[in-house]
Amino acid sequence: MQRRKIDLGYAASLLLSIALAFLIGALILAVSGHAPLNAYTEMVKGSLSNARHIGDTLEYAMVLCICGLACAVGSRAGIFNVGGEGQLLLGAVVAAQVGVAMEGSPKIVVIVCAALAAMAMGGAYAFVPGVLKVKLKVNEVITTIMLNTVAIYICQYLAKGPWRNSNPNIIAGTENLAQGYWLARPIAGSKLSSAIFASAVIAFLVWYIMQKTSVGYEMRLTGQNPRFARFAGLKTDTIVILAMLVSGAMCGAVGMFRVYGAEHIFKSSISNEYYFDGMMVAMITQYNPAGIILMSLFFAFLKIGAAGMEANAGVPNQIYLILQTVIIFFMAAQRGIAASVRAAAAKRTAQKEARARLAEGGARNG
Amino acid sequence: MDEILRHIFSAGTFNQMLRSATPVALAAMGGLLTEHAGIMNIGMDGMILMGAFIGVLGSYLCASAAMGVASAVLLGVAVGLFFALFVVKFKSDEFIIGCALNTFAAGLTAYLSRSIFGLSGTSGHDIAHLPTVHLDFLDAIPFFGEILNDNSFFIYLTWGLVALMWVFVYKTPCGFWIRAAGEKPETLRTAGISPERMKWIASILCGICCGLAGAHLSLGYLNGSFVEGMSNSRGYIAFACVIFGAANPAKAYIAALMFGFFDALGYRLQSYISSDLTSIIPYLITVVMMVYVVVRGQRKKTTLRTNTTAQKE
Amino acid sequence: MQETVVKFEHISMEFPGVLANDDVSLDIRRGEVFALVGENGAGKSTLMKILYGINEPTGGTLTVRGERVERFSPKDAIARGIGMVHQHFMLVPSFTVAQNIVLSREPRKFGVLFDDRAAVSEAQRLAREYALTVDPTAVVREISVGLQQRVEILKTLYRGADILILDEPTAVLTPQETDELFAVIRRIVREKNMTVIIITHKLYEVMAISDRVGVMRQGRLIGVEETKNVNERMLASMMVGREVLLGRLDRAGEAGEVRLAVEKLNVCDDRGLTAVRDLSLTVRAGEVLGIAAIEGNGQSELLEAVTGMRGAQSGRVLLGGADVTGSSPGARRARGLSHIPEDRIATGVSTAASVSDNLLVGRHRERRFNILGLHQKTKAVRDYTQQLYDEYDIRGAGVDTTVGSMSGGNMQKVVVAREFSLDANVLIISQPTRGVDVGAMEFIHSHIIKKRNEGCAILLASADLDEVFRLSDRIITMYEGEITGEFAADAITKEEIGYYMTGSGREEAQYAKAQN
After folding, report:
1. Which of A224, A291, B105, C361 is placed for a possible disulfide with B49 were both Cys, Cβ 3.0 to 4.6 Å?
2. How far apart are CA C12 and CA C221, in angstroms?
3. Residue A30: which residues within 8 A CB-CB, separation 6 or more?
4. Residue in C342, C350, C359, C368 to test binding to A, most A beta-carbons within 10 Å
């Protein structure tokens, strides 16, 4: 159907924002006594110099991308899922426990069960705020933020309590996953796993559903103008809840990938507010699927590269958070800044005209 | 059982409740202003974190805790201005800006902390912290004296601030304007007052409150140290308090005390029940409250409608 | 002759693409009640917003009390003694009456604190002085609309206004409340020598309250008269009287069986007030029933209740004999109902979606457009929408452009194309040609008549009387949610209709009903 044409103005401001972010980053680096050029070189090396680094970059990009797409699915239908972090963590902890409980079963069975359980968990956890929004008009942003924290504590409780690791040195973690259930790793030493293929399938499916199917079409119309959608006879309530379910299930799946592909255990490192990063990727790319993929790669490059920068140039890796958020600030304010600049220019012209009129009047009078 | 109860409801628990509640309450005092002004401010966590860091840094550089607090307040003004610039002036999505501010603060403070204090953070550096206040007359009062005495100065400051904020919001013209700016900005505009200006003011005051909350966290609560991510979602808790307390300073403070109580309870109950489970309660209550508020609002509208219909006929 | 307090000279106000005020010159005199009448969009509110400083005119000069206005802002207007009661009240719902009255100039104690007691006594004093009884401590959210309006008036008085603008003050009031308001207006004019400008389109109110009346049409001031020299019929023809540009259209066939029936329907508006009252009507196959009513008299709520966009309080809606009162819009569409909504941007289209997406909806689940109800067949969709695009003569950059980038007329054609292509047997049409150029208007009209001739039952509401006359077989007039008259379209004149629309004929109609 309709393909959004690449908006040149948007692309230009994105590039400008990135350039500005690196400039500001360079300034911060210089002030704190690091050579910016050297640091940035190490950053590139840190994420792209060898297969292992590239693998890690792809793994993180995958997480960002699926989280971003999950956010986009909701937003396309007009509901904003901020609760992905909770859905991800709950999905992860359930998936991990499925692997522990089913130990002894064939790998394929365990993996399928874990994935289904994680998605069901994530979906169910997203269902609650979805229904509250549709039926009672309770603001989903606030409820999902609250439910995030609830989920974090539930996971901590499970990982410390009933599902805790038998090794007393691991304080908050589930039982280790039997090695037989680990997802294959195409690159030795890297966290990248075969989950990336599953992610690619998910990404494709999301794009396909949103762009090419009747359901996606209905979701789009509902998100764009819910009143129009209802007027046109669509079942908007069902559509919104469905979108929320899908979004939650995707977050749950990411949790499962993190456990079976990267960490092989549920612990706090499963996600460090990764969903929020993915959500911001989605927001600044205006929920465009292709944009989300590209931006995820870029943000992953920043994060993984920053680790290399820390190791080899001695720069604290958190500089990537600064670069990332500066881009976000500029992109979020893009329209406002442009409007302010235009208004200022208009004012200047008006003043000039007024002055010219005045001068003209003066000349006539004189 | 008796033993357990005595353990739970000891003076120590309530003292801990006060201590845990204070940083949250301070931030909530700011958050309720932006809430009244019609800005959904979820960037408080970042504001607190930056306040905490700058507080430590100021104290470290000037060797004075007071200077630390002062610099945190100044930073609060700057962050408030920054937030308002984007949200009010550029009309950006307040949610994106809030989220980004949190991440930005996490990145910036960690980066600066490592650059200035080294990898191990502030431990090993001698940083002047806020003294505790001992009031002799409180010694005479059993139980309550124990709860109220020997606290950081900020706990008492918070009480003052809650009262002050209540007066400001409900008893001063400026408070009225801020509330009008959030509830019905056109009203203010047609009265010749700029609602945008009110949003700027609310945002700056919120920055100051969060700066204070941060300074208290690092210089008072943790006796002069900065730990990466030390705000530990307190900004979100403060936000929940604001929602829970319907942006009323007294109610928001009570909500903060409730969080503090469950926090303290968690510590006490560690041997019986996981503190993680007790920590959930306030968040769940907030969600339930939101549902309740909406349902009640709808019911009110229905009764109003039937009333007016009856009146007409 | 009284002194002139406000002088508009050659005022023009141009918004992007719209000339809302076109060279308006008008004098308002001290101590008079001046009524400004005109249809919706005639530019009355725009002109008054200039006086209140909300709009800065793009041309002409405004003089208040002999001083030329240079700075346009509400603050400056207030300082000049101008007060405005907006159509949508500017009150903070959670504040008390007194707090709303003193907002922006609060009495203070100790310099910084709000003096609540002083605010209450000030409110009481004003209420007594102007005999506008209100409870200063009541919360605005909880008082009736009539009382809220009093608070608005008290607010302007508190700010020292002696020129008072009332924008459609009676639109939300009951008849009793209207009487009370008029008593207040007379009192403040007579006793305080204030000047009142009242915007309205209810003509009998003009006759009842005003000293002079100005009629606006399409941004221009058509005439200013002493009220005692005119009557409602004259005003009505000045207000709506544009020349009939278009002739009647060919009709064929007789009205058939009843397709749409509304029985004793009661509907509330957004504020929860009754907008449609015990209303019943029927529409037959092959006829157009036109509703002639001035905006805000319940016709919008009626049509929304018929199409399912708004719930009904009581009564029934029958489509082809089946009760659909509680059904969703989708379920009603499934029974053969189509709807051209009043506000195309809010309801009729998705501006962010492409023309193609907008044309398809409603049929997108049909087998020919997808595989297994899942995969959308791009080509089939494209062919279909392209065909509609051509057939309905939509002019734009093709079916892939977003609807938001199109002109109003073409946007409306998108709505018409979709709704008319759905093979409906009941068509609900609201404001079909608002903001549409004459060519597109002719086109849309001919399609409506074509549908009629094909046997559709059509219910039409329009603020444009010419349109109602041109298209309808029968016309009903609505006033305050009730039907005030029913006529065969060729047996009544526009002036007479205008008379019934303004509520004037109501008593006669009721009398006639009682006689029967």
Report:
1. B105
2. 11
3. A36
4. C350
- Which of these, B178, A264, B299, A212, lies nearest to C94 by C-alpha position? B178
* Residue C249 covered by a domain: no
For chain A, the domains span: 51-337
Assess whether C211 and C279 both reside in one domain: no
Q: For chain C, which chains pass the contact test of at least 3 CB pairs under 8 Å? A: A, B
Q: Residue B93 sits in which domain range? A: 2-283
Q: Which two tokens stand for residue A77?
A: 């239908």
B149-164 in b/e form (b: 16+ CB < 10 A) is: bebbebbebbeebbee
- Do the Cβ atoms of B294 and A161 come within 8 Å? no
* Per-residue confidence band for B207, with pLDDT thresholds at 50, 70 and 90: very high
Please measure the distance between the N-terminal and C-terminal CA atoms of chain C and give it in whole angstroms.
51
Distance, in Å, from the CA atom of A243 to the CA atom of C263, rounded to the nearest integer, reads: 39
**Beta partners for residue C281, in sequence order:** C262
| Chain segment A45-54, per-residue pLDDT in tens | 988 888 999 9
pLDDT at C168 over 50: yes
B271 falls within a domain: yes
Tell me what the mean pLDDT of segment B61-75 comes to.
Answer: 92
Q: How many CA atoms lie within 13 A of C398 on its CB side?
A: 4
User: Does residue C177 sit in the same domain as residue C295?
Assistant: no
Type of residue at A106:
P
First to last CA, chain A: 66
| DSSP H stretches of helix in A225-284 | 226-231, 236-257, 274-284
Question: Over the stretch C351-380, which tens digit does the pLDDT of each residue have?
Answer: 889 999 999 988 888 888 888 878 888 888
Is the pLDDT score of A347 beyond 80?
A: no
Report the range of poorest mean pLDDT among A163-167, B253-257, C332-336, C499-503.
C499-503
Q: Is the pLDDT of residue C179 over 70?
A: yes
DSSP B131: P
Optimal mutation site among C87, C91, C92, interface B, most CBs of chain B within 10 A: C92
Stretch among A20-34, B191-205, C202-216 having the lowest mean pLDDT:
C202-216
Cα angle C127-C128-C130, degrees, rounded to a multiple of 5: 70
Same domain, C114 and C175: yes
Confidence (pLDDT) at A282:
93
Is B308 within a domain? no
Question: Which domain covers residue C230, as residue numbers?
Answer: 4-240
Contact call for C334 and A221, based on CB within 8 A: no
Note the pLDDT of residue C433: 82
Long-range CB pairs of C219-222, under 8 A, 24+ apart, other chains included: C219/C19, C219/C20, C219/C21, C219/C22, C219/C24, C219/C42, C219/C43, C219/C46, C220/C22, C220/C23, C220/C24, C220/C43, C221/C24, C221/C25, C221/C26
Beta bridge partners of A164: A174
With helix as H, strand as E and coil as C, how does C352-384 read? CCEHHHHHHCCCCCCHHHEECCCEECHHHHHHH
For the stretch A185-244, pLDDT in tens is 888 888 888 899 999 999 999 989 988 899 999 999 999 999 999 999 999 999 999 999
| Residues C272 and C206 occupy one common structural domain | no
Look at residue B46 and tell me if it is in a domain. yes
Q: Which helix (H) or strand (E) holds C428?
A: strand C426-430
Residue C162 in this model has a pLDDT that exceeds 50: yes
pLDDT exceeds 60 at position B303: no
CATH architecture assignment, domain A51-337? Orthogonal Bundle (1.10)
**Who among B172, B180, B190 is closest to C114 (CB)?**
B172
Subunit contact A324:B103, Cβ cutoff 8 A: yes
Higher pLDDT: A249 or C392? It is A249
Cross-strand pairs, C487 = C475
Q: How far apart are CA B94 and CA B304, in angstroms?
A: 33
User: If you measure CA to CA, which chain A residue comes closest to C349?
Assistant: A228
pLDDT the model gives residue A286: 85
